[in-house]
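Quick start: load a record and inspect it. Here is NPH3 domain-containing protein:
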Amino acid sequence: MVSQNPFSSFNRPSTTPKFCNTFNNRIFSDVAGDITIVVDGESFLLHKFPLVSRSGKIRKKVADSRDSSLTKLELLNLPGGPQTFELAAKFCYGTNFEITPENVANLRCAAEYLEMSDDYWEENLISRAEIYLKEIVVQSLEKSVEVLSTCEALLPTAEEVGIVTKCVDAIAINASKEQLVSGLSHLNSAGSGKLNMDCTEWWVEDLSVLRIDFYQRVIAAMRRTGVRADSITACLMHYAQTSQVGIGKREIWDPSRIKLDSTMAEDEQRVIVETLVSLLPTDKSTSIPTSFLFGMLRLANLVGVNSACRLELERRIAYLLEMVSLDDLLIPSTQTGDCIFDVDTVHRLLVNFLQRIEEEEPEDSLQYGYESEGLGSTSHASVLKVGGLIEAYLAEIAPDPCLNLKKFTNIIEILPDYARVIDDGLYRAIDIYLKAHPALTENESKKLCKYIDCQKLSQEASNHVAQNDRLPVQMAVRVLYFEQLRLKNAFSESSGDGFLSQRISSGVPSAAMSPRDNYASLRRENRELKLEVSRMRVRLSELEKEQGFMKQGMMEKPGHGKTFLTSISKGIGRIGIFGGPTEGKPQKAGRKSQGSEVKKGRRRRHLLS
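Running the structure step on this input writes:
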């Protein structure tokens, strides 16, 4: 049967020699061979002439041999091993076989080893393999990935002959083309000309079969060719979630289900994690899921990555700390005899988070025109979210009997006071800690309770504090004292004596008020000023209407000055811009002189002006 593959060695009938499945493989079943080639312990009984006519290496060995009747030749470290040499021998004999993505790299490297160039035979094996790579492999992303994966066992020869570079560049170029074609095919129905960036790249899964060093080169080439950062992030996430790092897709970074691959050396796992972290996009606009970052952080702790890798992960997580969940923060501790959870890592995350807030605050101060310790700024909302998150985190780690007081208080101290609007959550966490650590001394309990601001406790929490036997007596006394002040203020405001306190709350902030209350007071004052401006606008509109009426009266009755002045007086009385209508005693008609009438007329004209 004739082969129709254009990359078969020759299109001739298969009546030509074939290999026999014996220990001493023979090309011809009917003609005895004159040389035995040994490759990795496997022998091939062949003929010298077809081999020396196409292989420069075998020709040189036969020519350099002192024994003119050389009958055995051993080839050491031949790329691809016996299977590839069998194909190369078939090529020398002109036997048909098909070049495929699975064997082209092996054939190219074996041909380089055997020196099967065009110097010895026209269209020799090197040329045939290069043509296949150029016309078939590099035109397809899928075939390029397949060939590149076979190069792992062919180093350094595959690198020297350029197969690795060709495949890496081909993958990047084809991925960029696929991205463009996919985006154009998903133009929105409105016809605005915007590309749809949410389409999933089909080649993301294909790249996960590559070794980490090849994968790193592919990602770098993709960046150079303009592949989108979100597509690169999807590639990195899929690669990390494959079995190459011991995590399947279903685990989704659940700390209780993470297990390292027992078949992979610990050093190799560490290299994978460090490489993936170094490949993460640096563009802040690129969204990286926090669950992925925390999963990588847990893996980093398990395999013992270098400090630069761990700090980079912590920095990235701190930038998104307000969006993480409580489960994300519950990182298991890897140290024997330590706490259940890794509290030190969370503390470092908070340090990085506050550094980011400090960097953002100058911009917010310029935008809003004031400095108020983060109050009113865009970063203040983030601080409040993180404050609530840390309160829940403290309540989760508090029952741990191995958690010492220093680590617990370090988490409390790191956040500013304005990170908590009320201290109910903090009180709950401290109460749980006191219950789980009954061996604390009285001084330690007092030190811990000082972090609770009694003025920020709700009515329910205050009642609980007053009846809590685990708290120091001073704590209950402080709560009762502030509760009395609260009741006194409430009683004062309900009576008429609360006017002054109301003025303070809506006017200039008091020095005794907390920063949060000061900000709320300024907000209330701003609302009152806006309301007063609205009232003045309404009054101005009424004046403009009245002025129009007066002008219309002057045009209709130009000769009746007395009636006109009377209408002006009535109009001003109705508006009452300076108060209510003038209250005076009735005047007697016969007791007023002409001079008083003149003065009255002048006073009315003065009011009009």
